[in-house]
Design goal:
The chain is of the alpha/beta class. 36% of the residues lie in helices and 22% in strands. The chain has a 7-stranded mixed sheet with strand order 3-2-1-4-5-6-7, covered by helices on one side. α1 runs parallel beside α7. The C terminus is likely disordered. It binds glycinamide ribonucleotide.
Protein backbone atom coordinates (compact mmCIF):
# COMPACT_ATOMS: atom_id res chain seq x y z
CA UNK A 1 0.00 0.00 0.00
CA UNK A 2 1.48 3.36 -1.03
CA UNK A 3 1.13 6.24 1.44
CA UNK A 4 0.39 9.52 -0.32
CA UNK A 5 0.97 13.08 0.84
CA UNK A 6 -0.96 15.55 -1.30
CA UNK A 7 0.53 19.03 -1.47
CA UNK A 8 -2.02 21.71 -2.43
CA UNK A 9 -2.47 25.49 -2.22
CA UNK A 10 -5.94 26.32 -3.50
CA UNK A 11 -9.47 25.08 -3.97
CA UNK A 12 -8.57 21.44 -3.65
CA UNK A 13 -10.78 19.87 -6.27
CA UNK A 14 -7.97 17.51 -7.28
CA UNK A 15 -7.06 16.74 -3.66
CA UNK A 16 -10.67 15.86 -2.83
CA UNK A 17 -11.01 13.75 -5.97
CA UNK A 18 -7.82 11.79 -5.20
CA UNK A 19 -8.83 11.24 -1.56
CA UNK A 20 -12.22 9.90 -2.64
CA UNK A 21 -10.71 7.71 -5.36
CA UNK A 22 -8.34 5.96 -2.96
CA UNK A 23 -10.67 5.86 0.02
CA UNK A 24 -12.21 2.54 -1.01
CA UNK A 25 -9.00 0.92 0.27
CA UNK A 26 -8.39 -1.51 -2.59
CA UNK A 27 -6.58 0.67 -5.11
CA UNK A 28 -3.10 0.18 -3.70
CA UNK A 29 -2.72 3.56 -1.97
CA UNK A 30 -4.17 5.72 0.77
CA UNK A 31 -3.92 9.45 1.32
CA UNK A 32 -2.08 9.80 4.63
CA UNK A 33 -1.67 13.54 4.75
CA UNK A 34 -2.40 16.84 3.03
CA UNK A 35 0.20 19.62 3.18
CA UNK A 36 -0.97 23.16 2.43
CA UNK A 37 1.08 26.35 2.32
CA UNK A 38 -1.91 28.72 2.39
CA UNK A 39 -3.94 28.95 5.61
CA UNK A 40 -6.86 30.53 3.74
CA UNK A 41 -7.07 27.85 1.07
CA UNK A 42 -10.35 26.00 0.73
CA UNK A 43 -8.48 22.71 0.40
CA UNK A 44 -7.75 22.62 4.16
CA UNK A 45 -11.37 22.37 5.31
CA UNK A 46 -12.45 20.24 2.39
CA UNK A 47 -9.84 17.59 3.18
CA UNK A 48 -10.35 17.76 6.95
CA UNK A 49 -14.05 17.14 6.43
CA UNK A 50 -13.09 13.93 4.61
CA UNK A 51 -11.14 12.82 7.68
CA UNK A 52 -7.66 13.41 6.28
CA UNK A 53 -4.94 14.95 8.41
CA UNK A 54 -4.02 18.43 7.09
CA UNK A 55 -0.83 20.33 7.95
CA UNK A 56 -0.75 24.03 7.12
CA UNK A 57 2.90 25.01 6.90
CA UNK A 58 4.80 28.18 6.07
CA UNK A 59 7.12 28.45 3.09
CA UNK A 60 10.05 28.25 5.52
CA UNK A 61 8.67 25.06 7.13
CA UNK A 62 8.29 23.40 3.74
CA UNK A 63 11.88 24.33 2.93
CA UNK A 64 13.12 22.89 6.22
CA UNK A 65 14.33 19.26 6.36
CA UNK A 66 13.93 19.41 10.15
CA UNK A 67 10.20 20.04 9.75
CA UNK A 68 9.40 18.03 6.65
CA UNK A 69 11.42 14.84 7.14
CA UNK A 70 9.94 13.91 10.55
CA UNK A 71 6.45 14.86 9.34
CA UNK A 72 6.61 12.67 6.25
CA UNK A 73 8.24 9.84 8.22
CA UNK A 74 5.59 10.01 10.94
CA UNK A 75 2.89 9.54 8.30
CA UNK A 76 4.99 6.90 6.48
CA UNK A 77 4.68 8.82 3.21
CA UNK A 78 6.34 7.27 0.17
CA UNK A 79 4.60 9.16 -2.64
CA UNK A 80 4.05 12.92 -3.01
CA UNK A 81 1.26 14.22 -5.23
CA UNK A 82 1.30 17.90 -6.17
CA UNK A 83 -2.28 18.98 -6.83
CA UNK A 84 -2.25 22.71 -7.46
CA UNK A 85 0.73 23.30 -5.15
CA UNK A 86 2.21 26.73 -5.85
CA UNK A 87 5.61 26.47 -4.19
CA UNK A 88 8.72 24.96 -5.74
CA UNK A 89 9.76 21.89 -3.76
CA UNK A 90 13.17 22.14 -2.08
CA UNK A 91 15.97 19.90 -3.40
CA UNK A 92 16.04 17.73 -0.26
CA UNK A 93 12.48 16.62 -1.11
CA UNK A 94 12.97 16.17 -4.85
CA UNK A 95 16.13 14.18 -4.06
CA UNK A 96 14.69 12.01 -1.33
CA UNK A 97 11.48 11.25 -3.25
CA UNK A 98 13.03 11.12 -6.74
CA UNK A 99 10.72 9.18 -9.06
CA UNK A 100 7.97 9.33 -6.45
CA UNK A 101 6.69 12.89 -6.86
CA UNK A 102 4.01 13.55 -9.42
CA UNK A 103 2.45 16.83 -10.54
CA UNK A 104 -0.52 17.78 -12.65
CA UNK A 105 -0.14 20.77 -14.93
CA UNK A 106 -3.20 22.27 -16.66
CA UNK A 107 -1.80 22.44 -20.20
CA UNK A 108 -0.10 20.25 -22.77
CA UNK A 109 3.51 20.66 -21.65
CA UNK A 110 5.91 21.93 -22.84
CA UNK A 111 3.31 24.45 -24.04
CA UNK A 112 2.33 26.98 -21.36
CA UNK A 113 4.63 25.71 -18.63
CA UNK A 114 7.34 27.27 -16.50
CA UNK A 115 7.52 29.93 -13.81
CA UNK A 116 4.34 31.98 -13.38
CA UNK A 117 2.26 29.49 -15.36
CA UNK A 118 -0.30 28.11 -12.95
CA UNK A 119 -4.05 27.86 -12.63
CA UNK A 120 -6.07 30.55 -14.41
CA UNK A 121 -2.90 32.20 -15.81
CA UNK A 122 -2.35 29.14 -17.98
CA UNK A 123 -5.87 29.22 -19.40
CA UNK A 124 -5.66 32.97 -20.06
CA UNK A 125 -2.43 32.41 -22.00
CA UNK A 126 -3.99 29.56 -23.98
CA UNK A 127 -6.96 31.76 -25.00
CA UNK A 128 -4.71 34.75 -25.76
CA UNK A 129 -2.56 32.57 -28.03
CA UNK A 130 -5.63 31.43 -30.00
CA UNK A 131 -4.94 27.75 -29.34
CA UNK A 132 -7.44 25.27 -30.74
CA UNK A 133 -6.65 22.68 -28.08
CA UNK A 134 -5.30 22.41 -24.57
CA UNK A 135 -5.22 19.71 -21.96
CA UNK A 136 -3.48 18.23 -18.95
CA UNK A 137 -0.04 16.80 -18.29
CA UNK A 138 0.80 14.43 -15.45
CA UNK A 139 4.55 14.33 -14.94
CA UNK A 140 7.28 13.38 -12.51
CA UNK A 141 8.82 16.26 -10.57
CA UNK A 142 12.45 17.23 -10.47
CA UNK A 143 14.05 20.49 -9.35
CA UNK A 144 13.05 22.50 -12.45
CA UNK A 145 9.61 23.91 -13.24
CA UNK A 146 7.39 21.51 -15.19
CA UNK A 147 10.38 19.54 -16.43
CA UNK A 148 10.15 15.92 -15.22
CA UNK A 149 9.28 12.91 -17.34
CA UNK A 150 5.77 13.07 -18.79
CA UNK A 151 3.59 10.15 -17.70
CA UNK A 152 0.30 11.08 -19.34
CA UNK A 153 -1.39 13.77 -21.41
CA UNK A 154 -5.01 14.26 -22.47
CA UNK A 155 -6.33 17.03 -24.68
CA UNK A 156 -9.55 18.93 -25.16
CA UNK A 157 -10.71 21.36 -27.86
CA UNK A 158 -10.74 25.10 -27.24
CA UNK A 159 -13.74 26.48 -29.12
CA UNK A 160 -13.69 29.93 -30.74
CA UNK A 161 -15.16 32.27 -28.13
CA UNK A 162 -14.17 30.12 -25.13
CA UNK A 163 -13.13 32.27 -22.17
CA UNK A 164 -10.35 31.34 -19.75
CA UNK A 165 -13.07 30.22 -17.33
CA UNK A 166 -14.58 27.94 -20.00
CA UNK A 167 -11.18 26.43 -20.68
CA UNK A 168 -10.53 26.00 -16.96
CA UNK A 169 -13.79 24.12 -16.59
CA UNK A 170 -12.93 21.75 -19.44
CA UNK A 171 -9.46 21.15 -18.01
CA UNK A 172 -10.85 20.45 -14.54
CA UNK A 173 -13.09 17.77 -16.01
CA UNK A 174 -10.06 16.14 -17.62
CA UNK A 175 -8.18 16.32 -14.32
CA UNK A 176 -11.08 14.72 -12.49
CA UNK A 177 -11.31 11.88 -15.00
CA UNK A 178 -7.63 11.07 -15.30
CA UNK A 179 -5.39 12.19 -12.44
CA UNK A 180 -6.26 9.58 -9.77
CA UNK A 181 -6.34 6.82 -12.37
CA UNK A 182 -2.87 7.77 -13.68
CA UNK A 183 -1.46 7.85 -10.14
CA UNK A 184 -2.85 4.38 -9.48
CA UNK A 185 -1.68 2.97 -12.81
CA UNK A 186 1.83 4.39 -12.39
CA UNK A 187 2.57 3.90 -8.72
CA UNK A 188 0.23 1.28 -7.34
CA UNK A 189 0.97 -2.22 -8.50
CA UNK A 190 -1.98 -4.23 -9.71
CA UNK A 191 -4.15 -1.21 -10.42
CA UNK A 192 -5.66 -1.24 -13.89
CA UNK A 193 -5.31 1.92 -15.94
CA UNK A 194 -8.95 1.48 -16.94
CA UNK A 195 -10.44 1.63 -13.44
C1 LIG B 1 -5.38 22.58 -11.22
O1 LIG B 1 -5.98 22.93 -12.43
C2 LIG B 1 -3.94 22.17 -11.45
O2 LIG B 1 -3.74 21.56 -12.68
C3 LIG B 1 -3.25 23.50 -11.40
O3 LIG B 1 -3.87 24.21 -10.36
C4 LIG B 1 -5.25 23.80 -10.31
C5 LIG B 1 -5.60 23.48 -8.87
O4 LIG B 1 -6.98 23.30 -8.75
N1 LIG B 1 -1.83 23.35 -11.18
C6 LIG B 1 -0.93 24.19 -11.69
O5 LIG B 1 -1.23 25.18 -12.33
C7 LIG B 1 0.52 23.84 -11.38
N2 LIG B 1 1.41 24.60 -12.20
P1 LIG B 1 -7.57 22.60 -7.46
O6 LIG B 1 -6.96 23.29 -6.24
O7 LIG B 1 -9.05 22.82 -7.52
O8 LIG B 1 -7.19 21.14 -7.52
Amino acid sequence: MRRIAIFASGRGSNAVNIIKFFSCGDRGAAVALVVCNNPKAEVTERCRSLGVHVEVLSRADINSPDVMCPLLERHEVDLIVLAGFLQMLPPFLTGRFAGNIVNIHPSLLPRFGGKGMYGRHVHEAVVAAGESETGITVHLVNDKYDDGRILFQASVAVAPGDTAADVEHKVHLLEKTHFPRVIAATFCRGESSES
